[in-house]
Structure prediction request, 558 residues.
Amino acid sequence: MNVKDSLARARKQAKGGQRDTRLKASSPNSASTSTVSPLFRADKTLDALYENMEVLTGQRGEGAAVVMVTDSSGNRVPFYPDGSGGTTDGSGSGSDSGGDGGLTPAYPSTPTGLVVNGGFSVVELDWDAPVYYGHSLTQIWRCPEDNLSEAVQVGSTAANIYSDPIDPVYEGYYWIRFVNSNGVTGPYNASEGTYVKTQESTDDIINVINDTINDSPLIAQLQAGLDGVQEQITTIDSEGTQAFQNMWSVKASADGITAGIGLVAGVDDEGEPISQVAVAATQFFVFDPNNPNPDGTMEALFYVDADYGVCMQKAVIEQATIQVLNAQTIVADEVTAGIEIDSPDIKGGQIEIGNGFSVDSSGNMTANNATLNDVTLNRVTANEGQFNNVTIGEDCVIEGTLSANQIKGDIVNAVGFSMVTKSTSSGGGATWVDGTRTVIITDDQAFDRSVIIPAIVTTATAHTTENPDGGTTDGTNYVDITITWNGVTVASSSCTQTGEGTTTQSLSLVKDIITGGGDVTIKIIGSSYMHGDIGSETTCSDICLLVAKKGSGGIIVS
Prediction:
């Protein structure tokens, strides 16, 4: 069996074992047999662990092995971390946790720019980032045939790149579609799938090559004794023509199959020195006859095949130019990419891009300019910047200076209320009116404050009336306002009017509250006295009490 046939057999066996084999039931008239693909990948590799976890969480497969959890109502429901609400296609009622301020997510757009590349045991997909509002995730669908109706969802991601672990020598098709934060699914990128083929396992290729080498009749011939070879060479050297000394070639043919080897040393048509060795063969290999395996077989050190190119187990290359590289493991001191590097998972000590962006091994990121959308941050330290349309959900501590043109909130608090506004004498007798209003200010701020009571205006009006016996009587009207601070009088005002006329007085207060000094109780006590005349009255204006943060910034007193 040659290499091509052996690799074809290995490829066929690999396809037969691919993980997406569907349930195939026999016809009613045949024996009752069926083939069911395993739910999990029986492998100890990290890729297998990733795949099995995706099966358990509903991100891969048809949901037959999704973990069941208990919801807040005590019901057993499937666990779908992508918010698809118990459906593998992501069309359920996923919650909107994006904090969109009440805006409705847009209908998902059609994905564009899908590119699919096959490695050895993984398929990488990347696509253009969606631009519609409210995007949540992208679903990845796969099918061995170009048939969207038979495709199954194999994963989902919030990024615009995805790696799908798959068997070597897999051929299939992929589709993607977007899902918004409300769980609404959009259209697929296309009705036709994007074809991909993964690479053949290097181990399988090497094993087949070694088998082919050991079946070759050249092995026995080259391992045979060297008797007569020196004699043949001597004969050629002494009797060969000058042309044969400069150019030597050997050809062999059997059943129409030709192989040959040639060597030339001389000058070309332009007189330039030339030396060439050419091999005409479908397969060319190099082996070490002095180091066979314990069982006597040989291993190829270097192998060239017309169908599969150059194969080798080990190589040391100082410099190489490769247009397309598919590799399972790359170990290098330095990797340079001239255009871009795409990968769903990059692990390393540090990332540096020019002078404007870097991430160290501790996760510290430095960026001169950045545009961030839908970011959740645990802690932010910024030296300067600008915030537009920002909501601070909980406490905010500003240790420096806050400058603002418009402030709504607790920098200044104000209350307003009324005392007894008017009391009228019934004439002839005395009338007293008393009242007290109490304001308590709690010591709950980390800064000093000032209490401001603008002018409280009181008015006393009295009249002089004529008596029936011809005399006159002067009416008397008296009003008093007193302010106490934790029981101590801090301000007072009174006015009295006797006889015809009106008297007005005013009272105001400005006093500081020192933080840590405890709560403050302010009482405003009013009393009035009227006597001797119908129509006498007292009035007191409404009272406004302000509590403001104490500060003198921007104020100059001279």
Summary: The chain has three domains: 21-200, 202-222+261-328, 412-549. The longest strand covers residues 449-462. The chain has a mean pLDDT of 75.
